Fold each of these.
Amino acid sequence: MRKVRTALMIGVFVFALGCSKSDNSEGAPMDDNEITDPNAVSYQRDIRPIMQGNCLSCHGNPPTQNAPMSLTTLNEVKNAIETRGLLSRINSTTSPMPPNGLMPQTARALIAEWANQNFPE
């Protein structure tokens, strides 16, 4: 877990170096309240690509291959974690999701950290 956290922190640090504190996506100066925690996991930046690469072939909209739900939005993924045991399934060695085998440990740890941080966008 220490390696995962270290790799995550390095990635976030490198990402943060590419960002300018003085500007936001609209070109307006940022105030100090807009600066976010550099260790925060983002749905759009971190979790959505994991879902797209590992889950949406079955858990799309509409779901296919007898998948019970869609995982295409933040709210759907959050709901699956909170009420459908998604974290248990992606970490299961006997009944994993995706069914062809566990996704990388770093991806699974990032999803768990996102949940621990209360599902930031």
Amino acid sequence: MQQRHVRFFGGLISIVLFAAFSVFISGCKFQPGWGYNKGYSPEQPIPFDHSVHVGKHNIQCQYCHNQVERSTHSNIPALSTCMNCHMQVKTDSPHIQKMRDAYDSGKSVEWVKVHMLPDHVRFNHGAHLKKGVNCQTCHGAVETMSRVTQQADLSMGWCVNCHRQPENNAPLNCTTCHY
């Protein structure tokens, strides 16, 4: 009889502790880390409005991110790419003047990366573009963003779900994405 009481109270204590832990965790502002940055929208050193450049002026992603089709990584545009237009366009803007000063002195602008993956994950932009995946699939409607925001969580599950779609015919083996 005494053993049943011990088991009963032991089980009851376990349930109470689990419930308390669950309430504690649900109240925490838990941020899992790299690859789960959905909603991340850092302030940039110079405001860059994609809705103007891509949306209004129809500049293609690949004009500025010109390495994306032939490289595993996308590139942040060189200042020379920006200055192709901004030597004549909006030259009176203090933001453009800041870019021009950096350009003239051979410096660069320290842009803040928005879309990040863990170091042990490789993502090949070129391979995805060759398969017809458009930029908006992962990056959202950048052409409407005045400030770029990470739209997808870019978690392993998010990527694998896309790879599992029959129409994508994408590889599912671990070494496709992991070193």
